Amino acid sequence: MALFTMLLKVEEDEARVRYRFGPTEDNLGLLELDKESGEVTQLQSPDSDPPGVDFSNARKRLAKILNSGSAFPDRTSYAA
């Protein structure tokens, strides 16, 4: 089974970044990453099967970006 989660940045400031995330552009949730603590909070969930997979994938992708010190891109994805 292939996994794919897209992430689309909607807002960023010095303290946080927010992304829409989910399996397709028609089915997106919303999450927020605290840049200082690295904590990711799900604000709205997409309809996923099974539930929680897209949020978990999005967290993994954002943690990799945060740890690399790279700028947060406007669009990114997680695939496995």
How does the SSE layout of this entry go?
Elements: E1 4-12, E2 16-24, E3 27-34, E4 40-44, H1 53-68, E5 75-79
Shape: globular
The count of strands amounts to 5
Give the distance, in angstroms, between the N- and C-terminal Cα atoms: 9 Å
Helix content: 10-25%
Sheet with the most strands, sense and barrel status = 5 strands, antiparallel
In what range is the share of β-strand residues? over 45%
Secondary-structure class: alpha+beta
Low-confidence stretches: none
Q: Radius of gyration, Cα only, in angstroms?
A: 12 Å
Summarize the helix and strand pattern as letters: EEEEHE
Rounded average pLDDT: 95
Strand order of the main beta sheet, please?
A: 4-3-2-1-5
Number of helices: 1
Explained architecture:
This is Cadherin domain-containing protein. With 80 residues, the chain is α+β, with helices and mostly antiparallel strands. Helices cover 20% and strands 45% of the residues. The protein contains 1 helix and 5 strands. The chain has one helix at residues 53-68; strands spanning 4-12, 16-24, 27-34, 40-44, 75-79. It has a 5-stranded antiparallel sheet. It is globular, with a radius of gyration of 12 Å. The model has no long low-confidence stretch (mean pLDDT 95).
